Amino acid sequence: MKRFGLDIWGDDNFFIKDDTVNINYGNRPSLLQITREIREKGYKGPLLLRFPHLIEKQISTLFDTFEHAKKEFDYQGNFHAVFPLKVNQFPNFIHALVDVSKNYNYGLEAGSKAELIIAISQTPLGAPITVNGFKDKEMISLCFIAAKMGHNITVTIEGLGELETIIRVDREFNGKSETPVTPKIGVRIRLHSSGIGVWAKSGGYSSKFGLTSTELLEAYEMLKKHSLLDRLWMIHFHIGSQMGDIAPLKKALREAGNIYAELKKRGALAVEYSQHGSSIERNYSLNEFANDVVYLMQEISKSKGVAEPDIFTESGRYIAASHSVLVAPVLELFSQEYHKKALRLKEENPPLIQELYDLFDTINRKNAREYLHDALDHMESLLTLFDLGYI
Ligand SMILES: Cc1ncc(COP(=O)(O)O)c(C=O)c1O
Fold this sequence. Notes:
Blueprint: H1 6-9, E1 14-17, E2 20-23, H2 31-40, E3 47-50, H3 52-73, E4 79-84, H4 91-100, E5 107-110, H5 113-122, E6 128-131, H6 137-148, E7 152-157, H7 160-174, E8 184-188, H8 213-225, E9 232-238, H9 247-266, E10 270-274, H10 286-304, E11 311-313, H11 317-320, E12 324-327, H12 351-362, H13 368-387
This protein binds pyridoxal-5'-phosphate.
């Protein structure tokens, strides 16, 4: 029976029937049937099939898992989540996301002006909007307009220059107003802890993003001086996406938790942490992640004698990655699978060829990795000999 690797990527969202992949939802249609019907209408493809129920499944799993962890530890803070728009900005996806997440007060995260405009127009009033990335005066003014429209918006400053702009815009925007409106303010902190993997440089002491501890104290003083301390609401950190290992995340959570506790004593109300890596090969479950976040925040809050913070996550790929299937017409097959009959061995072969053949002949599950490395090494030697004109 064909399996199509479903046990690796399927997560019970699909099943096999009569050698075709079917969707495990509603009237359980087959992908092949759906594709045929679309093609009959004249659309040849490639086709991107989107399944909003899979977006909903990920969102509800995220919220349920954190609610479960909160209950288990009797955690007093709330859990919130936003979708980082950089992960998928397509209207077909965003409209479905906003539609299926209505019951969760789920919001959007924007990292650029264009994304901010999407967030303002698509986020239901009251659901959180968080704004990261570098911001000029125009972008900060847009955040004030969003707050005025009634949005629950938090501008996360990445550097002291942005805070100065917020203070300036606040004066211009609210100077003569009897009902001043200022967005909530977050600070991105530059942790000593760094992540691992491709995005490791997003964090760590030498990363480009976020405020160092001395800058954080300076920001605190600036906010106090301009009577904006009550708007400081969130600390944010991001040590890199697709974290395959949970250990660096736990270290960063401890560091951020302690910064939260110190700020809390001075007036910051919540901590936003991000984020939850969603790469397939990650070695931790969502359960473990949620338990660790809740447990660590609780432990630090207890030991420092401050209230347990609200928790935010900006998981992106975890929410979006599995909701669509790309169907592409197969035009031609190229394969790297060579069959034994294609080997044109002679009666007597050079030693390297003979050794390669012996590896091929005796490879098994146990020695596969070692033999693969040996074979690659032999191939390299053969190609070098060829380049030098010896064979
Ligand atoms: C600030 C921020 N938040 C969230 C994400 C989403 O990361 P992931 O898709 O691994 O959850 C990213 C990166 O893509 C990011 O830069």
